Amino acid sequence: MTSSIGIVGAGQFAGVFAKLFAAHPGISDIYFTDLITERAEEQSSILGATGTFDSFEAMLESDVDAVAIFTQRWTHGPLVVQALRAGKHVYSAVPMAISETEIEAIIEAVRETGLTYMMGETSYYNPATVFARKKRAEGAFGRIFYAEGDYVHDMDLGFYDAYQYSGGENWKRTASYPPMLYPTHSVGGVLGATGSHAVSVSCVGVKDQRQDGVFDKDVSMFENDFSNATALFEMNDGGAMRINEMRRVGYPSHIRESRFRYFGTEASMEQLALVSVWQDKHTVTDISGDLETQATMDMDDPMLANVAPALRDAFVSGMASVHDTDRLPAEFRGLPNGHEGSHHFLVDDFVTAINTGTLPPVNAWEAARYTLPGIVAHQSALRGGERLPVPDFGDAPAELPRPALRESAK
To answer: Based on the domain organization, do 179 and 250 belong to the same domain?
Structure first.
């Protein structure tokens, strides 16, 4: 079985992922659309894609089976619902949405249509998360009672360029995006290993002091002046999770932008930029080699043309030894990867899900648990750290009713 897919938003992420979708044996045709028509045409030409659409609406009216949404981060929720209601499977870049209402609408649409939704969270496939997930399954941690996830990505290391590329002359209005509304790279690496979820949160937001027009309430379309935020969550299993979202930080995010720590009653694991260790009550073992990835893509590849130079390291990393590469299509060998080896798995899990009718790992219910805690944490920060409950939409159903397949997907 094969399916066709439309790429929505031909910006910095789209080209690299499109190359993988085009190579996957489960994808038959690939299309592009973008508000800036020239970008869609350029990406289509580089890839040798099937074609382009003049608009998102035109793509939804076509017989394309699925769409992959790579638009600006605050736009995802409504676009996802619109696509699901139009009968399309949906892959969405992070975050899932920016409000509880938007998240609820996505889950309702998935439940009612039976279509596949997957959020492209890289940290689920981060080598540290994979390693910790395996150790937890073996029972090596004992009970994990505390974990930390940090997304330490300084604005100076790529984000200024990225926002200017996507935001045009008014880019400072959007560059002030609240850190806790982009929580999945940190939360996903914790929950992707522990299997728990948040039930309450208290968050402290750190007001920015650079005074360059970014994170300025008078400029920000989000009325946000927090450049960093730290949240402490109570978990459903009685444990705790601490999340850091930092945009002003002296840290080499081009080396490792997400890092994690897990503490159990029998053992623990800690990760820094270049060193990772496994510890029990008697010994410390350096596991850095197990989590190390190697570059797989030339920095001058045309697919990276729209990616800010300071962000390119995130798009060229290969696999780590803890990754199960045997499960991937042979066609992916030698193709671009990124974000610590996650891209190949993201694309394969989505294509497999839409072609087999199975739920992907980061399905709508899992994505809600990665996203909603940050939304509530931001509200807590606005209220001086007030402890707030984190709603939960429950576990994913064992299966969903599948829609009738079009000819192109049979």
So the answer is: yes
For 81-183, strand residue ranges (E) read 89-92, 117-119, 144-152
Average pLDDT over residues 294-310: 60
Q: What is the CATH number of the domain that holds 63?
A: 3.40.50.720
Residues in the chain: 410
Q: Is 300 left (phi over 0), alpha (psi -120 to 50) or beta?
A: alpha
Work out how many domains the chain is built from and give that number.
Answer: 2
Q: pLDDT tens digits, residue range 97-144?
A: 999 999 999 999 999 999 999 999 999 999 999 999 999 999 999 999
State pLDDT tens for residues 132-144.
999 999 999 999 9
CB under 8 A, 24+ apart: contacts of 131-136: 131/269, 131/287, 131/290, 131/291, 131/322, 132/193, 132/194, 132/260, 132/262, 132/269, 133/192, 133/193, 134/322, 135/267, 135/269, 135/278, 136/193, 136/194, 136/195
Identify the burial level of 265 via C-beta atoms within 10 angstroms of its C-beta, where 0-12 means exposed, 13-18 middle and 19 or more buried.
Answer: exposed
- Between CA 179 and CA 207 the distance in angstroms is 11
pTM greater than 0.70: yes
- The three-class DSSP label of residue 235 is strand
In DSSP terms, which residues pair with 3 in a beta bridge? 27
The label of the residue with tokens 């073992």 reads 285
Q: Which of 54, 11, 14 is nearest to 347 (CA)?
A: 14
Radius of gyration of the chain (CA): 20
Write down the pLDDT at residue 407.
47
> How many angstroms separate the CA atoms of 94 and 344, rounded?
16
